[in-house]
Amino acid sequence: MYSQEELKSLVDNTITALSYNMEAPELIDPVKYILSIGGKRLRPVLALMSCNLFTDNIESALIPATGLEIFHNFTLIHDDIMDQAPVRRNLPTVHHRWNVNQAILSGDVMAFVANECFLKTPQHLLSKVFRVFNKAAVEVCVGQQLDMDYERATFVTHDEYLRMIELKTAVLIAISAKIGAVFGGADDENSDLLYEFGRNLGMAFQIQDDLLDTYGDIKVFGKTSGGDIIANKKTFLYIEAIERASPSLRNKLRELFSGKEYDPATKVKNVTDIYDQLGIKRITENVARDYIKSAFSYLDKAESGKDRKTELIRLADSLIGRET
Fold first, then answer.
1. Is 295 in contact with 189 (CB distance < 8 Å)?
2. Angle at CA 289, nearest 5°, toward 142 and 151?
3. What is the Cα–Cα distance from 91 to 21, expressed in whole angstroms?
4. Which end of the chain is more exposed for a tag (fewer CB within 10 A), N or C?
5. pLDDT at position 324, please?
6. DSSP 8-state code for residue 120
């Protein structure tokens, strides 16, 4: 059995060993930058852990699993441009360090590098694995579009928001677990159980991410606190607050998210004060924990030795235990 730390090291080494077309270094330098500045490597590690549930031979899964990380970072580059985010993992975002045009192009090439990684899949699994990945890649883009649509929408329902984060965040985590199980030789039933484990884990992860954007320590979280509030993003916290607020507080919150110019620090404080009045932090933590419990229920059903699930359980626990 591999530990989380061992798998992360394998992924890091694989990323470092990747070869690129160096005819235009300006294209590749941002790619190397975003891939070198850390991150949990959650998706490839999850894929390799899921593979390791069913087999000790994870070699054939390593490069395709790394493709999941490259694709994820491609989405981060483009998300940061759309969100006008200045910081990622405590360092300048790609478009801030270079420029927007360079970030777009370097992000684009990462999608094709990810495809090259998936083409290293053994032939008998290639069609199945690539179809799962490609479907999720389209869903991620749909989720991002819904996220942008909801920024302009007057009202977003609880269910609409949950569907959006399922597409934007959870499906990539879900297919990471499923693809890993496929590489491990799992049958359809077990690989689908791993998908549901990953999907629920992804929902918890994104809800926790929303929470950390407002309440997280920038030194731990790696982003500027309150960025979602400044960008008028209708996060889980905002939607819960709108549903639970009195008419006067609801109007005040909508006014703060109306797009009018406010001093950023003042806006973040005023919105956070409303969240505090309504107990939104505790509510959000409880919902994230419920998704984690659901994730574990699917993992319990997977036909693998209990000792082989230890690292997956530890990984899930570490996600919900991130500091606020």
1. no
2. 30
3. 26
4. N
5. 43
6. T
- Domain 4-320 falls in which CATH fold? Farnesyl Diphosphate Synthase (1.10.600)
> What pLDDT score does 246 carry?
95
> How big is the CA angle at 185 (ends 183 and 190), to the nearest 5 degrees?
100
Which pLDDT score, from 0 to 100, does residue 193 have?
Answer: 98
Element (H, E) at 265: helix 264-278
List % helix, strand, coil for the chain (3-state, nearest 5). 75, 0, 20
The identity of residue 195, as a single letter, is Y
Q: Phi-psi region for residue 41, left (φ > 0), alpha (ψ -120 to 50) or beta? A: left
Positions in the chain whose pLDDT score sits under 50: 222, 324
Do 237 and 280 touch, CB atoms closer than 8 A?
A: yes
pLDDT reported for residue 153: 84
DSSP state at residue 264: H
Q: pLDDT at position 223, please?
A: 54
pTM, two decimals, is: 0.91
